[in-house]
Amino acid sequence: MTNTVATPAAEAPKGQSTLLLLLLKLRTFIALIAVVVFFSLMAPNFVTVANAVIVSKHVAINAFLAIGMTFVILTGGIDLSVGAIVGLVGMVAGALVLYGIPLEMFGVVIYPNVWEVIGIALLVGTFVGLINGLLITRMQVAPFIATLGMLYVARGTALLMSGGSTFPNLIGKPEFGNQGFPTLGSGTILGIPLSIWLLLVVACIAAYVATKTPFGRQIYAVGGNERAATLSGVSVNRVKLAVYMISGFCAAIAGLVVASQLVASHPASGETFEMNAIAAAVLGGTSLSGGRGTIGGTIVGAFVIGVLSDGLVMMGVSEFWQMVIKGVVIVGAVILDQMQRRIARNARLG
Amino acid sequence: MSLRNTLRTVSLGLLAGIALTASALAADGKLIVIITPSHDNPFFKQEAVGAQAKAKELGYEAAIYSHDDDANKQNDLIDSAIAQKAAAIILDNAGADATVAAVQKAKDAGVPSFLIDREINATGIAVAQIVSNNYQGATLVAESFVEAMGEKGNFVELVGKESDTNAGVRSKGFHDVIDQYPDMKMVAQQSANWSQTEAFSKMESILQANPDIQGVISGNDTMAMGAMAALEAAGRKDVLVAGFDGSNDVRDAIIAGKIHATGLQPAFRQAQYAVELADKYLKEGSTGQPEKISMDCVLITKENAAKLDNFALKD
Fold it and tell me: In this prediction, does ipTM exceed 0.90?
């Protein structure tokens, strides 16, 4: 088991790391610095505090999803439903703010306050994750299929909630005591938007859980070698169930932030977000076959993608080129990843 | 044994009878199939609602489908409309070139198509192509936009999905007016793919690169709403926003003074007109109209916004 579980710190062969290997290990970080330097030269006003804040705000949404996705991928799974959960959770929050919870048998409508709206929305996301997890562990449905099915179910449910239209003006009403929903998206502490603070908190907790807790080690163990993990007493099913719930929870945070920023919820929000989240995790060095990757790497990966797309917009590059460039960067990162593993393996053997 | 055989024969006969009756009902020429892009845009939803209401009113059955801007899915839907022996297809299509073959196939099978909102790059295949005059609408919006900006200043253009013909036509309409004013400068032009979320984040980035802007002109209303949210988040109440479509969300924003103007496409009326033409064609063998019919757009500003509801202006 010690051989199969690659904890992030155990990857470097001691005393033998060549300069090339070091550069490869830091490749995502170097890529981030490279894109930042590039856009500083090419795009007007790129290096300003205000822009750094805006970029981080945009990155945050993808980063929430990517953190949850990293946990799932570490176990060797995948969660394609996160984008649809973003849409669904936004619609749930929108419906709660606009229409409350109608209790028809008593003829009353309960308007939950903002904290309750957020709580219910997070529960919905986690619940969707729970269903994903149950399908995968109890019904033995492959994660790709289970979450693909959930993608359609969640997106369809989001569209059904409003018949396809937008829930606009989610500002609440004083007489219902449910004002304040937009604060999540537009509020600031010390001039930094709440969503960035939230990302900081979520990322720190996630990194702590992944590296410092028994549960974190179990995640790596399940992804590294599921059979070995089972034999050494890890409850594989419980770990898998938990990671899909975490992913659903993280997607719910992103859904709340998106709806709150737009002060409106649209059932199609979050389309293809799952792909950006997977891209961020992979760019950050997470292996799709499981067992290898870090939360920190994923965050850096999310920043590379975010800086790229914002920088290209600021330079005025066309949408089509933006897609091409993003694709090249993702595949390039994986090629470098493979190179690093090969060199590291040779160094370890030699 | 023979009793069982008799029973089997009788039941088989019954089944065949039911099947025949069912196909006879469908072949009765009473089904109108309505295919539009996804209803998550209220514009397309109103098309479907309008066409359905008119079809019922004229004594037809209506089936509503959405192709989600996927030409392949549209092709499948047209196949099943042919299989159901539909009397007519009302179609807001999934691509000017990609649709031609599908509409031809329906025509060959004897099912006439009536196109709304978007044209196809062929004539003589569809019975009618009723399109709002996107160009005329765009020039109306642009004229109002230029006037409100005082004929000078920096502006941003948000373009629709670049593979959609209407995105290009509207952009051309905007520019044919705005470019006549030398003091109007476009400092950024980006596609936000008709999406509110994308328009929001792109607008935030554009504002960083070009803080000195006075206006945003947008190829549709959902993107205008996204730009408006980004401008509000940045505390930029001084920037003028214009959209296109005439949705209820933008109507409310115009009344609240947050958006300057939009161009109304009469989606509801257009869809109803298509069904009326289909009815006439089915009864008389001709619509009595040329194939290409253009419906003018209407400028919506603070003056008439209150009269707008679900893509129709009340008198």
Answer: no
